[in-house]
Structure formats: structure tokens, C-alpha cells
UniProtKB/TrEMBL annotation:
InterPro entries with a match to the protein in the record: Peptidase_S8/S53_dom (IPR000209), Peptidase_S8/S53_dom_sf (IPR036852), Peptidase_S8_His-AS (IPR022398), Peptidase_S8_subtilisin-like (IPR050131)
Record protein name field: Peptidase S8/S53 domain-containing protein
Native organism taxonomy: Eukaryota, Metazoa, Ecdysozoa, Arthropoda, Hexapoda
UniProt cross-references to PROSITE patterns, sorted A to Z: SUBTILASE, SUBTILASE_HIS
Any one GO molecular function term: serine-type endopeptidase activity
Gene Ontology CC entries for this record: cytosol
Family to which the UniProt record says this protein belongs: Belongs to the peptidase S8 family.
Gene Ontology terms: biological process: proteolysis
Organism: Zophobas morio
């Protein structure tokens, strides 16, 4: 994998946990940042909003089938 800023490559640690990660490389390769998503709150809220179950409408969201655009804002970087 390359620096995410260059190739937008990411992977997961395993098929079981599905935790996505990517690399950011700083100072000409002397520092490496491994970035992971730190929470699932947005996914939870999106499910409450747009869940669509045609065979079980009792568990539909507030706006069943709404289209969701995923946007991540901000980051926390710890360089050691």
C-alpha cells in the first residue's frame, strides 16, 4: 500500500473485524501514520434514517431508501 494521499489505497485488518485502515507518510518517509475510523455513530444514524426492508416495513427508517452521501470531516493525528 502507498500513502493514501497519493493512491487512495486502504485495506482491512481481517475479514472478521472489517476495520479499515490506511497509511499517511510524512517527512519523506521518516514518519508513518496508520489511520482507522474511530467510530460507527454515522453508520448507526444512517441506518435509523434510511433503512429499507420491503418485506418488513416495521423496521424501516424514518426515510426508507433515502440516498446517503458519506463524508468524513476532520482527523486526529498522533505522530510519535
Amino acid at each position: 500500500m502507498a500513502d493514501y494521499k497519493i493512491r487512495q489505497e486502504y485495506s482491512t485488518f481481517s475479514n472478521q473485524d472489517m476495520l479499515s485502515y490506511s497509511f499517511n507518510i510524512y517527512n519523506e518517509g521518516s514518519r508513518l501514520s496508520i489511520s482507522v475510523c474511530c467510530g460507527s455513530h454515522g453508520t448507526h444514524v444512517a441506518g435509523i434514517l434510511a433503512a429499507y426492508h420491503p418485506d418488513n416495513s416495521g423496521v424501516n427508517g424514518i426515510a426508507p431508501g433515502a440516498q446517503i452521501v458519506s463524508v468524513k470531516i476532520g482527523s486526529a493525528v498522533l505522530l510519535l
